[in-house]
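Agenda item 2: fe (ii) ion complex prediction
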Amino acid sequence: MITMKTLEELYVAIEHLNMEGGWHRRQPSLWPEPKANFLSAHWRYAEVKPILEAAGHLVDHHLAERRNLTLTNPLQGNWYSTVRTLVAAYQSIKPGENALSHRHTPNALRIILEGHGTYTVVNGMRVEMRPGDVLLTPSWHWHSHEAIGPDECFWVDVLDVPLVHLLEPMFFEHHPERCEPVKENVASSPLAFRWENSVHRLDAQTESPANGTAEREIELGSPAMKTIAVHVQRMSAGFDSTLHKTTANAVFTVLSGSGTSRIGDHEFKWSKGDVLAVPSWQPYQHHVMEDAHLVRVSDEPVMRAFDFLYGR
Ligand SMILES: [Fe+2]
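Presented output:
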């Protein structure tokens, strides 16, 4: 027997059962194109490095397993992510320090900015990290870092932790021996993309990406990891990339050179070591002032896997 005689009574009954009528949503669930929720953002290495150096005096590796500074997108309510699916962080390690071994389901990579004599051990393979190198730590691989040379080493980490937060399969554990034993010292590894190899491949590159987003571009891996793609770009002084937007979320790290980038409604002046957040569907364009190399880290593999990768 129907006892509800008014729309109001109907809606009360629907809400009482934790339901919502698709014809009168409080908020739309579908819209014509992406909303570009996350904000464009820029971090200057010149401002970050002194803070990392100060942290090196105040925060030792007993207090912080990793001495890192995550780059939090200024989107209101966001507490962690750099863009929707990725988090970037600056990290440093001082001579004599050892960042203990752990593993987690999120995929991670390191882009080395400065410093020699630092090594990473990934699943027992010990390899040096040098400026310009990109080193991978795929999901559930043990990893630790140690600095045995004279330099403090600085790098940028990018991880897919926000994607793992969304999907929920987070697992993390410390190595039972604190430092994972080294099985083998290696000069090269499929998980280490050397700067000299990137330079060699860029030198041999003759064509620009069809969408005009860089002058030359190579991909490290195909893709580097299941959720993260890494591209190294080279652009000469005076080069202007085309204005482009894509559903893929990206974090750019400046390895060399300088320039300006318009991302969304903001313009950022960048130089070596800086990081730029280019969230999904924010239009962006680079203008290069001094010959530059940028590393573009994106969630393209995720977007592509689900047929969500669009650009214009
Ligand atoms: Fe880690």
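Discussion summary: The longest strand covers residues 284-298.
Owner for follow-up: CH.
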